[in-house]
Amino acid sequence: MTFRDTLAGVGKPVSVRLDDDALRALGRLEATGLTRSEAIRAALLQAAERLRRADAVAAEVRSLEEDQADRLEMLEVAALMERLRAPR
Question: Please, what sign has the CA dihedral across residues 80, 84, 86, 88?
Fold first, then answer.
């Protein structure tokens, strides 16, 4: 009979080759006191969050572009601003 014990919370190992720029960036993160694993995990999570936010902004822009009432209001405001502009 074999007994196996799995450690909860232990991540899956990943192998990666880093170029000089990535190694310097990793060194800067490690210089803050993070372990190599902590630095890499934090960088991955931050990059994924930036992508998520960019996707959310792009979706909002698409939504606004498709909103005809908003587009008409934008054109009305632009026309008003043009009428209020001081003569040259």
Answer: positive
For the stretch 21-60, pLDDT in tens is: 999 999 999 999 999 999 999 999 999 999 999 999 999 9
Q: How many domains does the chain have?
A: 1
d(CA 50, CA 43): 11
Q: Pull the structure tokens for residue 75.
A: 């054109």
Instruction: Give the domain extent around 54.
Output: 20-84
Residues sharing a CB contact under 8 Å with residue 65, sequence separation 6 or more, in sequence order: 71
Residue 9 lies in a domain: no
Q: Look at residue 73 and tell me if it is in a domain.
A: yes
